[in-house]
């Protein structure tokens, strides 16, 4: 291994490579951690804080509203009830990571540590691909690998563990001690503590190693050792989750289970959102259309160029290429089984671990372009990638803007100082941000929820209540001139609280209507 490995010659190219390599360290300034406490991110913060407050003995959510809603019917963050506990669907292991950092570094420490892990992931991948600037450029600038890895710490940690274990395997020499392969398999399996779907990637890798390399005695021993380490790691994970949650795949699987087993032809909406786009989000290939070309080339390449039934094919293929093949095969398997949260933000964190494989397959595509059309095909491919570079830039800008917007909502909470916060959509519990544990908050979606909640919790115990009502079309269209006119949700609130409560403040924003009611 040497830098730049003969692939970077000019000083400008070296500078560009170093910039790409160190870019994760810039992201805590582009997407400030303190502005990322909303939606799922707030839920992960709540889980981490709960683990810490429980003395690292339980993931039972510590909610200020627990005495008002002991059964968790109106939990302001996503939660699953198991026995007497309210459990977050987010990985318990991630909660422990948050709990370690929060007391001494706050939320900044979590994201700073994640950024460092992404940088180390870049190091592993750069070594594996001989410091190829094209590989790193495609992965960093034309895919969501960096931004999703940083923005979602569970994704960043899972990819670091999977790539770290893969690096141990792929960089081994002929005389490497067998325990190293056992450790590699175990580390790869450990990524499933943070993203359960990551189990599919080592399985696919073992499958391809067995097809192409099993006839080689030395490789066979490596495969057995890696498989054993992976099996130990998976059994440990599934066993602990079964004991804790009553299901070997944990709470997130239970949360997504209703849609995971739908027949494929009934999941077209999920597939289209996951891979292309839906009205609000860009999917995997919507983010990087060049990877769709890569996928088609992979199908051709694996069946016609590197078929395991082709004579001498096994002697021509490297373990690194098998790692690439397995990553794209795992991608296909995950797409078929995509749950409801397959429809998520740009690029899809659900398919995140396949991104290094797609970038690697892109290089194989470049190497296999015929001499006659090499120049024009490369120009077309790079032009398509420029679109993805623009999307990467826009994605970061959008996330930064939304983070700043939520910070302004936090300020409204501090100004109003309510005794209770009621949100109509869970996402808007972001108004509390890092102050979540100071004031009870409940999720009252419909008019019947308002009636039921305040029938069990007398309004007189509250001096001031802050409400956050969504203006989304799922409920009703509000009158812009007077948003409280013919507002069924507000009418239900007034009826449930009674005449003792009067509206003392309101603000009509683009997507929400905020108002405070105070007891006379």
Automatic annotation (TrEMBL):
Record's signal peptide: none
Record's keyword annotation contains Membrane: yes
Residue stretches spanning the membrane: 12-31, 96-129, 199-216, 223-245, 282-302, 322-338, 350-369, 376-395
InterPro entries from the UniProt entry: LA3751_2-like
Keyword rRNA processing: no
The entry's keywords: Membrane, Transmembrane, Transmembrane helix
The name this protein goes by in its record: Glycosyltransferase RgtA/B/C/D-like domain-containing protein
Organism expressing this protein natively: Leptospira dzoumogneensis
